[in-house]
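Justification of resources, computational component.

The compute hours requested in this renewal are based largely on the per-chain cost of generating structure records like the one below. Each record pairs the submitted sequence with a full structure-token output. That output is archived, and it is also reused by downstream analysis tasks.
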Amino acid sequence: MHKHKTGLTRREAMQVGYSGALGLGLTSLLKQRAAAADSESGKPRQASGKKMILVWTTGAMSHHDTLDMKPDAPAEVRGQFNPVQTRIPGYQMCEHMPELSKLADKFSVIRSFTHKDNNHLMSTHHVLTGQFQPGAFFDKIASRTDWPNYSGAYDYFNPRNDGIPNGVNLPTYMQQPPLLWPGQYAGLLGAKHDPWQITADPNKDDFKVDSLTLAAGLDIQRVTDRQSLLSDLNSQQGRLERTAVGNRMKSEQQEAYNILTSRKLANAFEVQKEADAVRESYGRHTTGQSLLLARRLVEVGVPVVQVNIGNAQNWDNHGNIFPILKDRLLPPLDQGLAALLTDLEQRGMLEDTFVVLIGEFGRTPKINGGAGRDHWGPCFSGLFAGGGVQGGRVIGESDSHGGYPVKKPFAPEDFGATVYSVLGIDPESEIRDRFDRPLRLNSGSVITELF
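The structure output for this chain reads:
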């Protein structure tokens, strides 16, 4: 079988997102779900009912200019933004995050994440899987030797065939050819556990996911009529039905019918059905409508949704960082994320939805000659809400320049253990790769200070 240069087979490469609007076609999805049900029917399920919306700042948001400001540091460290007081006594955030600042009692901030990498791809894998990338080297692209991302592991322990995916990534796909970002897939668990990849802007008036849309002129009744005809044809294929292939085909046909006729998942993608006031509260921009779509997806039962804020390196501000943050990046994030937290709480969903804002690393303490900040793995911050998180806490501390943690350092492994614990998966669980080799899922410790 032909191998792509990423190490994936041609078939697997297609399944992890090289296609357009939806990285998994309906046919391949059904084959994957059926295979999962067959091969893993004896595996104990692990789930708590909690869900996660992971808000990913692609390219790495500057902690100095958002969640861990240093107003008393020298000018070349503190930057151009002023801090504002939040509802957490003594804790200040960036002046360009006013809506989130008002909600600080609803979330907690960790200011002491740390790892040793300054490379986008390796660091992305580390944070999005909770494990160090096997055989990692500078710009090591995705392969099937990678650790699984969180939705991939969730799907491994909780396979389903009801037409609802266990993971959805949206609205961008992290790649800059020839670089393919690791951490977006199920890695060593195989393509059947990959999340769905949506690459379309939900803020556009014509937004839709074609693979979940009935063909023009095909209504539900006509689909039902065709299902009856299909059942008649299948009932006459006794010889075929006695084979494993025949049984699989019938299962796939039934699931395709269930997806198209139930409309549950398809309806979730129809953000146009939301009240105008709700859409406006999130903001009529890609960030806001992507976060709204994430809420709609968890509402219909998708347990893990990752929202990429921008393309692969949107927050990689090596130059001109302050006007970019002020004018382009922070306002939509502030509006959309604040609206998401408020909306989840008003709907009674926040306690069961773990919301995380994080990136692959931080930015350098000292502003460079291009008026930007460079890559910095030794210290970065994250924001956490819902899913049992106690609001109003500031956990960990960095030094006076935001360069290194001085209290409670946490590694990506600890972040991963926390995610798995909230999702109801034991971080010490055993997984098996495609060659049936046993591996421990995660080597970190749960960040108990959040709960």
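The first strand starts at residue 51 and ends at 56. Residues 321-346 form the longest helix (26 residues).
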